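Quick one, T. Sequence first:
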Amino acid sequence: MKAHAMPDSHPRNPGTPFAPDWFEEMQVNRTAAERRATTISGSRSVKKDHQAAWLLRAIQCIDLTTLSGDDTPGKVRRLCAKARQPVRPDLLEAMGVGDIGLTTGAVCVYPTMVPHAVAALQGSGIPVASVATGFPAGLTPLSQRLAEITYAVEAGASEIDIVITREHVLLGNWQALYDEVAAMRAACGEAHMKAILATGELGTLTNVYRASMVAMQAGSDFIKTSTGKETENATLPVSLTMLRALRDYAERTGTRIGFKPAGGLRAAKDALAWLALMKEELGQPWLRPDLFRIGASTLLGDIERQLEHHVTGRYASADHHALS
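Structure tokens:
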């Protein structure tokens, strides 16, 4: 079984001038997108050692997340310990990959929890991501949202997950969306920026495509499906639409932008489905944590459970693989 440590950085997206002609004529057929998504989830299957290797790759791409009102420094420290050692050493040794230095892709927390995560991850090479800009609704004044980015960056976050104003998308005010995201990108400084589109609140897949393109033009390093707080979060048709926008942007600019599905990905089979979608739509370069992340809080536990079954032939109870 092969598994290798992945690069953890990628050239920043310099963005482009606002170019509405790149997306205004685009229309996305939901039926066709759903049909294509069905071919991913319904017919793609990997087994045994191949499945275990894919699950290890998925772990490397997880933004291990806690975004709850009861977050405490202790809870964050425990989550960071899990990020450092996401799978029991005996299972990794049994699979012959005990020496790969497996970690999650990042740890994602609220801004006030950033200092605790930074301290807990010191020396690990695992980046700390922080949500910001009035997460999850994004309806605080822009000056406050920008100040929140500055706070998180100064506290040590190297990645910022911002939320957009959904109103701009629903009203077709693309210039306002571009200006807002560009201002947030400037506030991030050297920190990589992931733009959360909250796709479950955008109405149509056409809006999802257009918002994706505007966010990339404005300098987003990643585009992300959801906050995890919407009624509908990451789905394969939505992800397919965003990946097609990523591909179009790369063809126009030569710049690869990352993708992060988040919300609702809880089972190992979900991780496998999204990895298959990434590989088929964008190819091998996007199967690395510098271009693909999965936002999740419980997914890792099920992946570790599946890996234990691969090694022992037995399923442990879900609470046997606690995250923190």
